[in-house]
Design goal:
By secondary structure, the chain is an alpha+beta fold. The protein contains four helices and seven strands.
Length: 145
């Protein structure tokens, strides 16, 4: 699968994937357009099966979004997206990667911990749904998986 930087032409399918993957917590088209206009690492699969959005500030990078279509889950696409984003964040000077994940999302938590992320904090009532988020961190200086 080929990954590329996402652009304005991707807005429609990104919005559809947001709704599919995140329901009430989905970003709006306006929010997605703002992300596309920002200086972000936004990688998209050519076949529109997934994307990742990472912000880098100083030595820290924050995974803002990662989404994969239900049909492409457990195919390695999420890992490919994450590892490509880690490499890009490292090139921009990041030494650690942070993200939030819904505490009930055991599949995502297992995925992230398998990559090496560790739970460092919980934010209560983080999501629109009222659910708490786990804050996970990964040192990326030597991530090779």
């Amino acid at each position: 699968m080929r990954l590329r930087q996402a652009g304005d032409a991707d807005l429609d399918w990104l919005a559809d994937l947001e709704t599919t993957c995140f329901g009430v917590d989905a970003w709006t088209r306006a929010q997605l357009a703002e992300e596309l206009a920002a200086d972000r690492i936004m990688l998209a699969a050519d076949d529109h099966a997934g994307w990742i959005d990472v912000a880098v500030a100083g030595d820290a990078a924050d995974v803002l979004r990662i989404a994969v279509t239900p049909a492409q889950r457990r195919t390695g696409l999420a890992t490919e997206l994450l590892l490509a984003a880690i490499a890009a964040a490292r090139q921009r000077g990041a030494h650690r990667l942070l993200l939030e994940v819904a505490e009930h999302n055991t599949g995502a938590i297992a995925f992230y911990t398998d990559v090496g992320f560790q739970h460092i904090h919980t934010r209560e009532h983080y999501y629109v749904s009222g659910e708490a988020a786990w804050i996970l961190e990964l040192p990326i200086e030597h991530t090779t998986r």
